[in-house]
Each structure stands twice: as structure tokens, then as C-alpha cells.
Amino acid sequence: MSTPQSPDWQTLSVDVNLATDSFINGEPYSSGSNALLEHVDPVSKKNDYSFHNSGAKEVEVAVSAARDCYENHWSNTGPAARKKMLGELANLIDANADSIGIADCLDMGKPISAANQEAHIAAGFIRYYAEMIDKVYSGHSVPTGQGALELQVMRPRGVVGAITPWNFPVINVALKIGPALAAGNTVVIKPSELSSRSAILVAKLAIEAGLPAGAVNVITGDGVTGDLLARHTEVDMLTFTGSTATGKLLLSAIGQSSIKPILLECGGKSPEIIFPDAAEGNLDAIAQTVVRGAFWNQGQVCVARSRLLIHSSIYAELIEKIHAVASSMSVGNPLDVDCMFGPLASTRQQQVVEDFIESGIEDGANLILDGRNPAGGEEGCYVGPTIFTDVPANARIAQQEIFGPVLAIFTFDDDDQALALANDSEYGLAATIWTKDIVRANRLASQIKVGKVKIVATPAMVEGPMFSHSAEPCGQSGYGVEGGSDGLFSYMRKQSIEFAMG
Hints:
With 502 residues, the protein is α/β, with parallel strands linked by helices.
């Protein structure tokens, strides 16, 4: 039996037609403005296409289209019809995974194998929320006296503004429009200026799936465009994934314009704690898992396990193995099907990461693997895996989100020291604890201040919750629940209806 050959991604990337215009009210939209942004190819650092930097006019047109669709079409569409259309959208995303994957690969340097897989994951999120529409009860009655009845029901919020990041472009679009549309809202998406083309393609597929014009709109642009969307008084809710600094700016914009709920998933500095009882006979596999968790997507992951805490009894041996695994990773062209480590998303991000590496040296940390100027990546935005040990607790690389392939390693002697190190951060997204001791695991999980704690007793791969996972960050990582069934209710408001019947 022959093995299916991988597509010729290089040829497909030349042949695929990827739109760059905003997509509003069911069709491409260009204001004719000369306000253009240049996209830079992260592999070559050369300009590869131009697109419009949407201003007040484009934002107004998009929000008006979403409002009209909400009031006159989508909010009045029954659950069976919504389910059918969202299910078809998921099918179309699956069918167009190659084009979507190429868009994200070319835009932000994501290795094509990962980009293609993430398109299917995005389809899974849409399908999950489509299936929830007729399976989740969104209301209940409450106790009253005789002759009275009160119903508490969940309603859509209206027009949702969604600002999505560049690190997982199509997944973040799906994670926001899936529950928003399932709940009965319409959406205006402002994708990152580094990776907008997959969002435009998804919006086009929504029309093909039968969704009414205006249900899903995409406006291209930079932070100014996002600020305009956040301030618009006809936007009923804002959802954002990105940096803590930008999240704070959006909170300020809302405070200066109109009151609306906002869902924030911001920065992270997630700890991974390894106890010796989990390491017995597993150090090689643990090293592989640690490297994958720290350097996945070139470290451009909000929940990247970028702070590694190792018990002193296994510290030296595990570091040696981690160094060996990370050193074996080489950068490559993201269109190569075998590439596992591509460039960073932009020249700015490359400079940010390289500045952090320099600061680690200046702060006294021990640089044992330097990813700057990796072989084969001289022309692009490449920084390879980078590892520091003996990191001072107050070093920038210990306290600030880097969003790049930089791992800071610490040592500890007991549970209390591990907990103190894990909580020595303003962020609160995720944490991993390697232990077979259920008492220790339970105690630490209850005291680590993060939205998600993963307890790992073995490096063996097991199936996780996938689309049903939901969590809420804390600290400077944001607030509000995303994912799973609870994530659907984040896009709804509670209304009470009281009947006084006598």
C-alpha cells in the first residue's frame, strides 16, 4: 500500500489566491484609501504584499453591516438553521485547510505542517459550537409565589468585536467566532496586521456556508484600527487575545467610550515544575516534552512553559538532556514539510527576543544555548532555541513575557520553594506539575495562581479535553472564560422575564 505524498507546498503557495482586502457585508471591501501597510515576509525580510490600514470609515461600514445582520437576520435565525450553517462552515474550513495553512505559513512563518493541522483544529472549534447550539439549555425558572413565574434566559449580546493575534491566526478566529455566532451574535474581526489573510478566507467561506452577509466581517489594519473598533458605540462586546500591554489599552478605550463587556486573554509566563518522583526512568522523555512545551511555535505561545523549575536532585542530569534535545533543533523554510522550527513572525519580534537574550546576559543568567544567528536563518527573522540557567529571580527573562524561544531554568529543594517560584509572576495563564504524588499535586494545584494546571505523572501521550477545555486566566493574563461550553455563555447575557399572572 503506497503512502500518500505530501503536497508540493512551494508550488501551491505560488498558485493559491489569497485576498488582502477587508471583507465586509459579504464581499471584499476597499475604501480606495491610500493608507497602506506593507507586509514583510519573515523568511526573507522583504515586502511581499500591501493591504489597507482601515480607518474610521471602514470600521463604521463593518459595524453597521454587523448591526443590520444581527437585528434583521442572525438573531432571528433558529437554532437548527444556525447549527446547519456553522456545521457547513466547519466542513468548508476542512476542505480549504491547504489554502488556510499556506496563508498562515506565509504570513507569520508557521511551519506548513503545523499551519495545515491548525486549520483542521479551527474547523473543530466551529463544529464543536455548532453541535452545542441545540444541546445546551440557556435558561431556567426560579422559585416564585403562586400566580407568578420568572424565567431567566440567555440572550446574545449583539455585535461582537474580535481582535485576534498573529501566533495562531485561524485557531483564534475560530475560537472567537464559533461561540459568538452559535450564541446568535454577529462579529467584526480585526486580525493582526501580521496575519490577516486566513481570517479573510474564513469570512468568505462563511458566505459560502450560507451565513447572511454581515454575520462575519473582517477589517484589516494595525492597532489604530483595533482602537477604533473598541471605541465604537455600536459594538456590544469586545473579545481580545494578545499582549497585556494592548489589553490595558483596550480597557482604557472602552472606559473612554461606551460601557461593554470585554473578554481578555493576555500575556503569560507559565511555570513547569519537575519533581524527582515523576522523573524516575523518564528523563529522556521529559526532556523531549519540556523542549516541545517551551519552543512550540518558536516559543510564540501565550501558555509556553517558559519558566522551568527542576528539583535539585535531578537538575544537572535533566539540563544536560534538555540541552541536547534543543541543540538538535534546526531552523528551516516553513514551506518545507519537514520543517519543525520556522522564523519569528516579524523583524520587530526578532529584535524583541534578541534584546531579551542580551538582557539575560546583563542580568547575570548563564546562557548555555544561544539561538541568535542560527545556521540557515541568516536572511530571515530567525532565532533558534535559547536556554538560560542560574536565572536571578528579578531578571527580565524571569519576569516578563518574551514570546519567543527562550527558556529560563531554576532549581528548588522542596515543595514550598517550588510554589514560591511558580507564583513569582504577575501572570496567571497556565502551569504544569510533574509528580506522581497526588497529595502534592492537589495542594500545589490549589495554590498556584493560574487558569489551568496540568498534572503529569508520565510523559506518555494521552488524549486531552480538546475543544471542551475551558479556563479563565488571572492576574495580568486577563479574565473571562474561553473554550468549552462555558465559553459559549461568555458571549451571552442573562435576561429575566417575570410573569405576574394572578
